[in-house]
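Cont'd.
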Amino acid sequence: MSAPATRAITFAPHRVAAMVLRYLYLLRSSWPRVLELIYWPTMQLFVWGFLQLYISQNAGFFARAGGMFIGAVLLWDILFRGQLGFSVSFLEEMWARNLGNLMISPLRPIEFVAALMIMSIVRLAIGMVPVSLMAIALFGFNIYGMGFALAAFFANLILTSWSVGILVSGILLRNGMGAESLAWTLMFVLLPLTCVYYPVGTLPPWLQVVAWALPPTYVFEGMRALVMDHVFRADLMAQALGLNAVYFCAAVIAFLQLLKSARRQGSLLQSGE
Amino acid sequence: MPVEPAIAVDQLVKVYGATRAVDGISFALAPGSITGLLGGNGAGKTTTIAMILGLVMPSSGSAKVLGAEMPRQRYQVLHRMNFESPYVDMPHRLTVRQNLKVFGRLYAVEQLGARIADIAAQLELGDFLDRPTGKLSAGQKTRVALAKALINRPDVLLLDEPTASLDPDTADWVRSRLERFREQHGATVLLASHNMSEVERLCERVIMMKNGRIEDDDTPRRLLTRYGRQTLEEVFLDVARGRGEAREAAQ
């Protein structure tokens, strides 16, 4: 392969590292940004933790399902905060009007996406690790006790969150800050559909078809099977992984197409409303 | 053997809906040259520069930089180019040093610490190297943006109104640093500006644009002679108001 052709398809870890460094500098310079990462997951934990405590004292079924709500809220936060971590890092470039500088640098789109994926995990860890420790201390729920199952849940949820984050970033590139609200709200479409707090069987049959097309549904069903019946459903995780592979590839293709469209539209230099 | 132009634009067109922002322009810039792109608001300067940078896809025609077609082959040359514009910012919360570190790494600058020290000395950034970029004055920010644009010692440098909103003294200082960089590195510079004295001082060639087209293209001296004017500003006004052809014909 010729040198120019090789250069065109190069993936350079040093450029990914440069972008990660940029976001770490930003987090280090702004304690409200760090506080915000912990604040909402903590509030969620308190609300659902105390609710779980209350109903477990009053209903036999929920006494048996100890930790189901807390498990659900923690896994939902992996999904939601994972996407937010990705999208907010991307939005930082738009807020800073820095996108033009990045787009004329040697940084490849795929390296940019890789840096955002790493930052989504970093931001998630800052928020979720303290909250998961609080769940142990306050409600006796140890999410790490799920062991390998937690790794499978996490992998599937973070993959979905990246797919949504990549798609939202592409839309932002193409349509500018007018589409910013999507970054904050799009994931909530999945909240009722992926059956975070109730079994899929609760939905009407036609909506169950939609639910089973979404990878997180398999994770939340798997979590309930683990907490209620102490069974790890590897089949559900494999199906979720298959769906995630499809959605992730589709999101990357959509991102590249939206980037191409942004170049045609001329929206990369002035990424305002 | 003829030298390949550093920038070659051929029949370049950009259409947004019903508007032809750039309408079939062609020019070639020799390596090491410094050229001014002059024109009023909406003349098509920024769109032209954006197409040369690969940020905007041409509707037709081509823009080549160092032999690479933009934006299709941009990754062959982006590491040898850079850009500065008041319409693009550096991250405000990062210090100047942090910003230069990040961009230096993106451009794979070797011995980055030494390069930052060197450029900080040249552009007199030392006093605020560790201050957040957002807390600097407009003049200081322009110097930081210039430092970012020069961090990789680019062979091709594109500047979009580099001294806009600066006081005359600071603007003059920036121009002298640009002149020095070009002399030392032999870079090709394309400079879009509204500032006629800036173009007159820095540029050996001026391309005048109006309504997306090139209205004139010559050296500053020859433009002054041909239009029978004392300053480029007067030439610019002649071109902008469509008096250029009449005046030349009369002469």
